[in-house]
Model the fold of this input.
Amino acid sequence: MHKKFNGYPKPSNLFLLCASTYGKQRCKAVMKKVSHDPIATIEGIRRNFAEWSATHSILQDDFMRHREGVNWMPLPPGFVKVNFDDSWSATQSGCGLGLVIRDGNGACLAGASYVSSHNSVVEAKAMTALVGLQKAANMHQKKVVMEGDCLEVIDALKDDSCAHWRSFIILKKIVQLSLDFDEDLWNWIPRDTNR
Done:
């Protein structure tokens, strides 16, 4: 749920809205191999803010917190949560990676989006998890909940099972990096919830 700050969304949420729109416009330009259009980006931010404002004013708090029966669960004390996801297409040469890091109250601590290139959706999801874990490590976090919608990656990291061979090296890097944390928990969430 977006909290309001003097009648407007919190500045961190506005930043995420702008950063997300910019990242999508940048990915679109890279994928289509055209120059980035700042006017389209500004228009996209304006449109997204208008959509957010309209949606926010008509939806009730319960609907925003409960999406398809999945409720936000408070984090254990001292933990941060890294939500990670990607946008991958077999017909495109590039893909987008995105992540958000939140504290136990749901406040945004950091977010990032990247353009990358991977041969499979599982490989892209694994890379996004690695980048999210690296970002949490760079923030000197010691307890992290990693949350994503790729069951194959989550299962491989939870019980050290075998995943797709293309993601093996990335998963090994994640396992190695996770040794720097006091605790790392891996949660799978349904795709429709990870938006």
About this structure: The first strand starts at residue 4 and ends at 5.
